[in-house]
Amino acid sequence: MCGQQGMSPQDTDPDPASLRRIIHVDMDAFYASVEQRDDPALRGRPLAVGGSRQRGVVAAASYEARRYGVRSAMPSVTARRKCPDLIFVPPRFDVYRAVSAQIHAIFARYTGLIQPLSLDEAYLDVTDPLIDRPSATAIAQDIRAAIRAETGLTASAGVSYNKFLAKLASDYRKPDGLYVITPRMGPRFVESLPVEAFHGIGPATAARMRAMGIRTGLDLRAHDMDSLARHFGKAAAFYYGIARGRDDRPVEADRRRKSVGTERTFEHDIHDWAEALSALDGMVDRVWGECRKRGLVARTVTVKVKYADFQQTGRARSLPQPLAAHAVFRQVACDLLRPFFPPERGIRLLGVTLSNLDLTGGASPQLALALDDPGSVQAGP
């Protein structure tokens, strides 16, 4: 994977894991781009997919909107304040799923080792591709061209010898870009990056690292395994590796979903049990229906509560056997929610999740669309 020709022998790291050829494909502003594709009047204009209501949330933003600082998960009120000309369109989940299916069909022409992360991104292991191409870079070029030709959308791709670097590479030339990180480049590439840019290091962990004086990949590399283990436990080995450009995780083609859930943000803060119960019933119906459709059973129920001041809490219960019926699921969810009432503060969001999933047989654990929207079902990877 050196430039346009793939890895040359002198670039090859002796570690067998580095011989993998990994592509990370990430669609560019996927939901917003689909809307602009389907409605020419929206092209070139700042666009947000999501609810425009007072308590709405941006699910996706076009690149025109991002120039104003509009981002996904941002409250719609904030987004409109940043960009007064912002156009809101409601999400069309079925359309996004259909386009995602087209894109994944393109991936399948090149490899059977595909790990979807969401509707709009995936890892591909093309170490042993299904077609004869000279390099992973050439395959990434083919995939991007096919996506453009067959869907009218653009995708960015990163090519490298492991998943961590491939994902970093796909971000490096967005939108509509392709970047390659060879084994020789890998350790140097991460040296100057802020730890916040590392996939797998969230805001809380990044803050802890900064308190230790760890601000860049080079700073992280200066800490030995014992030091990292004392501060970060089991995650230490991963952090130790990525600071050196190493990541041995394989592409998991049949990775099963960990959770199925949904959330609802209310138009106004709620205090009333009857109103909360009505919302809970709708969410229980959606999550149960999604699990039935996917052939999944679950043992753990979690209820999430977010208050008007954005403080968040929740309760969970795990059962010895999978939930046998919708009525059992509803009862457990109600029992978990009841202690929060009457609330001391208004509640702006409720959520319900099923986890500890297993297949009942005959269904494939596909990823569902994950959006903070009253009508969407969220799926954990």
From TrEMBL:
UniProt keyword annotation of Transport present: no
Enzyme Commission identifier(s): 2.7.7.7
UniProt xrefs under Pfam families: IMS (PF00817), IMS_C (PF11799)
Keywords, ordered alphabetically: Cytoplasm, DNA damage, DNA repair, DNA replication, DNA-binding, DNA-directed DNA polymerase, Magnesium, Metal-binding, Mutator protein, Nucleotidyltransferase, Transferase
SUPFAM superfamilies: DNA/RNA polymerases, Lesion bypass DNA polymerase (Y-family), little finger domain
Sample GO molecular function, one term: DNA-directed DNA polymerase activity
Role description: Poorly processive, error-prone DNA polymerase involved in untargeted mutagenesis. Copies undamaged DNA at stalled replication forks, which arise in vivo from mismatched or misaligned primer ends. These misaligned primers can be extended by PolIV. Exhibits no 3'-5' exonuclease (proofreading) activity. May be involved in translesional synthesis, in conjunction with the beta clamp from PolIII.
Protein name: DNA polymerase IV
Species for this entry: Gluconacetobacter diazotrophicus (strain ATCC 49037 / DSM 5601 / CCUG 37298 / CIP 103539 / LMG 7603 / PAl5)
